Amino acid sequence: MKKELNLNQKVFELCETYPELIEILSNVGFTEITKKNALQTVGKWMTIPKAAKLRGIDMADIVAALEEAGFSVEEPVNRVTLLKSYLERLNHGENLENVRADFVQDFEGVDASEILQAEEEMILEGMPYQEVQKLCDVHSALFHGSTREEQVYKAELAVEDSLRRQGASVFVAIPGHPLSTLTLENEILAMLIDEAQHHCEDDQKTDELFDKIREVSIHYAKKGDLIYPLLKERYGISGPADVMWAVDDEIRDTFQALAQEIKRNKSWEECYLANLERAEEMIYKETNILFPLCAQTFTKKDWEELYWDSLGYEPCLMDEIPVWEDAKPRKTETKIKGHDIVLPTGKLTVEQLRALLNTIPMEISFVDENDINRYFNEGYKLFKRPNMALGRTVTSCHPPQIAQMVQQILEDFKTGQQDSVEVWMEKRGKLVLVRYMAVRDEEGNYLGTAEFVQDMEAVRKKFL
Hints:
Oligomer: single chain
Distance between the termini: 90 Å
Shape: elongated
Number of strands: 10
Order of helices and strands: EHHHHHEHHHHHHHHHHHHEEEHEEHEEEH
Helix content: 55-70%
């Protein structure tokens, strides 16, 4: 009688049932399986088909070896197809509990990549991403308690649920690493949500927690600006950008709408609690889907770029952004390369730079460290700046009473007593803002002064 072999089972489980599999699999190329430590760690989350794909071993050769040894091999279930069928059934209105029952019966664990792949395949097959988006909260509830991570936790296993999850855990343990900071923000948010849910009858407490919870918009902004585009544009992974991003925006916009409501009635409370639940679901999806996916996909250079860019955002739910000590410093050199002016944050041709400076809706002048006029942008100016003035001292371009004031501003900038001066005035019937700003290098050394003249008449008409 042949021994039946289910290829959806983990290698460790199969070898526990049929110890002779160790030698068979070793002979077809899985040499590491003879090591007890490998079998008891990697073997607990690895299936034979997945291992074959990673090692580049033909499944036909494996099946032939198994059948020759007296095994009857069951064809592996296409897990992505099953997941798609569950999501589609839910989308057609089938009861969640019915689908959940089938899910529990058919699955032993769920990989984050399979959830995303199911979503992406449905989008590629023509399902509007708005429809997939509707399933986002539903499939999160569907997978609660069924992911391998939770199974491992409940069984008190020592091994992580997958290499992706293991990778995420490693990054989360590094202080200041983007995944560590994002996870810390989620942990704080989860505590605030729990507290808010238990104090919804206390108006004062609700107001305090609500203001703090709204900082999640910074967390979502970092995902939207830094993570989703990187996954989609650099690696072709569009699922999170097409689905999660829209949900982030809905949660943020709902909190914003609630903040604008003056009356806090029963309807407000219900909407607030429902949105808290959505934010809680997003924490779950980030932890179990997005972050593991990023851990497997992003390179160290990606993470370093993401870290340095993240410092441009306000701290989220904490007083300051944690420092990643091991992040390689970002290059700050400036150079001319071919036709490009290469800057730390990008590169432009001379033509592009000229057009850009001329497009900025203000008059721009630059005076160097020796008080010499070095640059004016082109175009119409309220304050005339003839090219003949270039190369002259800035004070020579002003009447004596104004020159004295200008000289004092420059001296204050050079000594560090001031960094900027604003002057509001009327010029030819228009409200004008003139800003003088000290220009310094990264070490704080004075390089010169920039003057920005901005016509504020449109602002006055709109807001005053």
